[in-house]
Design a protein that fits this description.
Blueprint lengths: L17 E3 L6 E2 L5 E2 L3 E9 L6 H17 L9 E9 L4 H12 L4 E5 L4 H14 L3 E3 L14 E3 L4 H14 L4 E7 L2 H13 L6 E8 L8 H10 L3 E5 L2 H13 L5 E4 L6 H7 L7 E4 L8 H14 L5 H20 L3 H10 L3 E3 L2 E3 L11 E6 L2 E4 L3
Parallel strand pairs: 4-5, 4-6, 6-7, 7-8, 9-10, 9-11, 11-12, 12-13
Antiparallel strand pairs: 1-5, 2-3, 13-16, 14-15, 16-17
Helix pairs in contact: 1-9, 1-10, 2-3, 4-5, 7-8, 10-11
Length: 383
């Protein structure tokens, strides 16, 4: 289990009450109420802050905290006192729906960042839509999300984008026989469908396809044995970092020398912390390059490491962009949910740390970077 001393378990309401007011503050009346005070508004967030996806969930939450901190002196937001209310969805669709209902009943909520898991995002979306609350997911990639709701967007690249990039990469390395392993969720099935729809076009063969229950499966020995016996040269994964690390370790124990390919759900400190030498050589694609020399990207990456003593992953970058999109919308449209939704729909080429964002049917396909684990670090590579 990863050590996570920097978050509390259970539902988390993080009052990041960043006072975006003019210098000097507001005067107080005898009754204790502020005169001419900034309007109090809330940005909601739902993510898995505990459990097997807790590492990613907290990176997402911390990225939003950082975005609010970076904008605390923004003159365009001086009329607002912004509170971040973060809740633990536990990677559970029922929890996601409950959080959405809670936020739907709070008139101060002007936007919602979440969720991470596609199934949770889809459970929350109809409730948020009825309340007129725009939702931007920093982690959900399932194709079911495309056009699902006029109020649902995502900064995260789609399964199609990630899957096609991984297929192309494996083909460039002259791999012919692959296995497909995926978690039995909307996210995992999305990547499975992309792999199975595109790998045969390369002239290669899928020698076996295996699924498992996310959060319930820890022993992958039987699956790895099937992959070994099928003669696969590589595995195309539709899994998260923790279970991917377990697969790699168990493959090593079986004496397998096989290549792993995965999406940005594996790009982060968790994979290396858990997998150690077993994940050497892992190849992943990501929508963010923390080593970028772009000033905004560098400010984000350096600021994140300085504040949280951790490397940001792709989901953190996507969440940082989502937060800044909402803050721009608030500055331009005020805390009017209808106007905020229109602002996001009309957004063109938002210059974020994960590239330019324009939403089409809620999707924002991104240019993906290639990384390989080398000597215990993710290294940006061409092949």
């Amino acid at each position: 289990m990863l050590k996570r001393p920097w978050f509390r378990t259970g539902a988390l309401a993080v009052a990041v009450a960043l006072l975006l007011t003019a210098c000097g503050g507001a005067a107080s009346s005898p009754g204790g109420q502020s005169v001419g005070a900034a309007k109090k508004v809330k940005l909601g967030l739902g993510a898995p802050l505990t459990g097997s996806s807790g590492e990613d969930g907290n990176l997402i939450k911390n990225a939003v905290v950082l975005a609010l901190e970076h904008r605390k002196d923004d003159a365009k937001l001086k009329d607002y006192q912004i509170e971040l209310v973060a809740e633990d969805d536990k990677a559970d669709p029922k929890e996601g729906a409950a959080i959405a209902n809670k936020f739907a009943g709070d008139s101060a909520i002007f936007g919602y960042i979440g969720d991470y898991n596609s199934s949770v995002t889809l459970a929350a979306a109809p409730i948020l839509q009825r309340a007129g609350i725009s939702q931007i997911s920093p982690g959900s990639s399932s194709p079911k999300i495309t056009g699902f709701s006029e109020f649902l967007f995502r900064t995260q690249p789609t399964d199609r984008t990630s899957g096609e990039n991984l297929v192309n990469w494996a083909q460039e390395l002259s791999i012919k026989k692959v296995a497909v392993i995926y978690e039995n969720t909307d996210y995992g099935k999305g990547l499975q469908n992309v792999y199975e729809g595109n790998w045969p076009k390369t002239g290669g063969q899928i020698v076996t396809t295996e699924s498992y229950l996310s959060g319930q499966t820890s022993d992958f020995t039987a699956i790895m044995t099937k992959v070994k016996n099928a003669g696969a040269e590589a595995i195309l994964l539709g899994s998260l970092y923790n279970e991917s690390a377990a697969m790699a370790k168990q493959a090593k124990q079986l004496g397998m020398n096989i290549q792993f390919f995965g999406s940005d759900s594996m790009y982060g400190p968790g994979l290396i912390d858990l997998g150690k030498e077993a994940v050497e050589g892992f190849r992943v694609v990501s929508g963010m390059n923390p080593g970028s020399t772009d000033p905004a990207s560098k400010k984000f990456a350096d600021g994140f490491k300085a504040k949280f003593n951790k490397e940001p992953n792709s989901f953190a970058g996507q969440a940082y962009d989502a937060a800044n999109i909402f803050l721009d919308a608030l500055a331009a449209a005020g805390p009017d949910r209808v106007k905020i939704n229109k602002y996001i729909h009309d957004l063109k080429d938002f210059p974020g740390v994960t590239g330019k964002t324009t939403f089409v049917k809620g999707d924002a396909d991104k240019t993906l970077y290639r990384f390989q684990v080398q000597s215990g670090k993710f290294v940006n590579v061409q092949k």
